[in-house]
């Protein structure tokens, strides 16, 4: 096992860390997690936990799943199909994005409802394309809309949709029933695993394997570390990591996560969802922010609410500050999942529910129902301020010891993505606060839970397109433009209702206006 968690001396020698680690070992938290003991998080969490610990027993299911995935991949290859598109949100998409980057294979991601991004995915070479549609509930509006669009595109191209569409969903979900009736390829996931803990289940493995990942290597890495992570010992890396994070709470609740050159897998984005959605509730929470090594959050005068985390594949050395985590990808998946479960125990929260995620979905449905045909955003006028004015607004809105989130309801594949990252760095430096960047609507399925249910420390900068372009959703009265506008409006309404400050910027020409903001 190459997995290691190494702490800076200031953390390792602290009384809060030692007390937390002692409590985890004394209460046998690690072994009880892997025995699927649902009582660990208290009586109120027991019912939910009893159906959410299947991730600890991943290897047996994977052993049966991998041959079926490889068989379908061979079938596709024989038909000349070598382009895999994944339609999924949150836990259904983040792990495959990391896995395929780790494996060096190509996977086209569609985790947005922005019309330009959807159109770009549809305009790829459909003769070479298979589409994986992943939804645990089987009713996710984004993925159902993607499915309808691809079915129509395949029909228009003279291709039988059922031959190219692969479904990953829970048994007997609406999508499962519909897909079996339609003759699509269907893989059922373990219903006793929540989306954010599903990296080593069908949700992580099916799209990654169809794209060409060596799944046996990934699962073998994770299985090789399982015994060590289940030990009730003070040197258990998962317990050390959980205790280190807990020791800084509630003041140091932001994890600034960066990867070394040998671990550039974008694992930080997956960690964001796992920890933020698991802990961000009841006015408490831990917010990971995935960053590059040059981000202001890693400077000598980093904000006091930040704990730095360095990820690497090789051997971790003792950091001057923060935490260093090293290990293979499979090892790190299981490490962070176990540490999150242990952290929930230390924080006194249920790490497996997400009570505030549904509120934004309800508000989005209401906004969509109110829209006639065009999106509300399309009716708005561009209002991009100069940088100084924007900085002043954010400074006034930012709570003491707080953070900022840029919520970009824009095309994530466009060139303005680089400008947004530059703007993020600039705001973090000038505000002296951590700044996260989330792409809407994808973040609604991950960190959005913490924005609404976590500590009231955030200020939210929502950036939307004045005219995202129109693209119909087959079988629906609304288009993708109306859908993404309703999702932005719905999240804004819920945040405002919760007393969270929201600043909305409407872009007419996002590429030019964001470049100006980042450089001015």
From TrEMBL:
<keyword id="KW-0324">Glycolysis</keyword>
<keyword id="KW-0413">Isomerase</keyword>
<dbReference type="InterPro" id="IPR046348">
    <property type="entry name" value="SIS_dom_sf"/>
</dbReference>
<keyword id="KW-0312">Gluconeogenesis</keyword>
<dbReference type="GO" id="GO:0005829">
    <property type="term" value="C:cytosol"/>
</dbReference>
<dbReference type="GO" id="GO:0051156">
    <property type="term" value="P:glucose 6-phosphate metabolic process"/>
</dbReference>
<dbReference type="GO" id="GO:0004347">
    <property type="term" value="F:glucose-6-phosphate isomerase activity"/>
</dbReference>
<dbReference type="GO" id="GO:0006094">
    <property type="term" value="P:gluconeogenesis"/>
</dbReference>
<protein>
    <submittedName>
        <fullName>Glucose-6-phosphate isomerase</fullName>
    </submittedName>
</protein>
<dbReference type="GO" id="GO:0048029">
    <property type="term" value="F:monosaccharide binding"/>
</dbReference>
<dbReference type="InterPro" id="IPR001672">
    <property type="entry name" value="G6P_Isomerase"/>
</dbReference>
<dbReference type="GO" id="GO:0097367">
    <property type="term" value="F:carbohydrate derivative binding"/>
</dbReference>
<dbReference type="GO" id="GO:0006096">
    <property type="term" value="P:glycolytic process"/>
</dbReference>
